[in-house]
Amino acid sequence: MSTTTEATPAESAAMQRALLLAARGVRGANPLVGAVVLGVDGRVLGEGYHRGAGTPHAEPAALADARERGNDPRGATMVVTLEPCNHTGRTGPCSEALIEAGMARVVHAADDVNGAAAGGAQRLRAAGIDCVGGLGAAASLELNERWSTALAAGRPFVTLKSAQSLDGRVAAVDGTSQWITGPEARADGHRLRGLADAVLVGSGTVRADDPRLTARDADGVGVTAAPGLRAVMGRTPVPDDAAVRGEGFLHLPTHEVGEALDELYGRGVRHLLVEGGPRIASAFLRAGVVDELFSYVAPLMLGDGAPAYPDLGVGSLADAARWMLDDAGGPGVRQFGADVRLHLRPPSAAQT
């Protein structure tokens, strides 16, 4: 791993700016990365961030911005939130772009954990560029936790979302489920959709609720963001007039969680939001692939309605997994209107 050398005040400030820029990007097959070009006097010459798969990486975007401002980046310092990549994919290697631009120094935060793209720092040093890493690494790693977890596991990072009553029901006896939670909680759920690469439900949910699976505003009207894919899992055909159909729709005709995750990962999905009904939710939990859980709890009781997580295979209290509140990035317990949201991680994640 790269080691940190003492950064100048200008470089530290530039890294904070680069992290803010990175957060503007689109989560997905590539990490969130921001970059700032500093002149020898510490002045910002240009800045940029990666806007999504197929678009210029943060470093070339920052170099282009510098040139558009009339600034020559030769002899300057590149401050970037991730080690510059060293491979050719949809775009060329950032390490070579920095060498060609005549950069004198590169300060990066986290090392690149993608084996195919790693080695940029070594390449830069071989070309005579002063290159150090570690400044702001913790913040960069937190920003891209879902991406790095997905790479390590070889499957999408899985977020499971549910809305249930106090007694753990997701529908009344007659099957009605809209709406258990209030508008504030539903708006937060739409925000989660906007962060994911794909949203998945089961074919049963499509038949019962006919969801659109788009991220909408607080009034449930305007589309604020759309996931890369809207996936329906199950062997039952999806009706031609289903609201979920259209650009970005994907039918996964399987009941096996592993097959669905392999298909989605192969399509570039690194963060999956599962919103399916009880059967789908339980299937992902039984498979042990849920990386985080958002549980919205409404202050009502439904008695003999449908349970949120049936058939988990828990035979005794000793068999039950004790999930842990996750306060990273905000409180693990939050109130939205009359409802409460729990943000939880499985025990294995909490122990690491």
From TrEMBL:
Domain CMP/dCMP-type deaminase: 9-131
Cofactor note: Binds 1 zinc ion.
Names of the cofactor(s): Zn(2+)
Catalytic reaction annotation: 5-amino-6-(5-phospho-D-ribitylamino)uracil + NADP(+) = 5-amino-6-(5-phospho-D-ribosylamino)uracil + NADPH + H(+); 2,5-diamino-6-hydroxy-4-(5-phosphoribosylamino)-pyrimidine + H2O + H(+) = 5-amino-6-(5-phospho-D-ribosylamino)uracil + NH4(+)
Keyword hit for Cytoplasm: no
Domain of life: Bacteria
Binding-site residues, substrate: 177, 193, 213, 216, 275
Pfam families registered for this protein in UniProt: dCMP_cyt_deam_1, RibD_C
Active site location: 59
CDD domains the record matches: Riboflavin_deaminase-reductase
BP GO terms, sorted: riboflavin biosynthetic process
Molecular-function GO terms, alphabetical: 5-amino-6-(5-phosphoribosylamino)uracil reductase activity; diaminohydroxyphosphoribosylaminopyrimidine deaminase activity; zinc ion binding
Enzyme Commission designation: 3.5.4.26, 1.1.1.193
Binding residues for Zn(2+): 57, 85, 94
Record pathway: Cofactor biosynthesis; riboflavin biosynthesis; 5-amino-6-(D-ribitylamino)uracil from GTP: step 2/4; Cofactor biosynthesis; riboflavin biosynthesis; 5-amino-6-(D-ribitylamino)uracil from GTP: step 3/4
Keywords of the record: Hydrolase, Metal-binding, Multifunctional enzyme, NADP, Oxidoreductase, Riboflavin biosynthesis, Zinc
Residues the record lists as binding NADP(+): 163, 179, 205, 209, 277-283
Function of the protein: Converts 2,5-diamino-6-(ribosylamino)-4(3h)-pyrimidinone 5'-phosphate into 5-amino-6-(ribosylamino)-2,4(1h,3h)-pyrimidinedione 5'-phosphate.
Family: In the N-terminal section; belongs to the cytidine and deoxycytidylate deaminase family.
NCBIfam families: eubact_ribD
Protein name: Riboflavin biosynthesis protein RibD
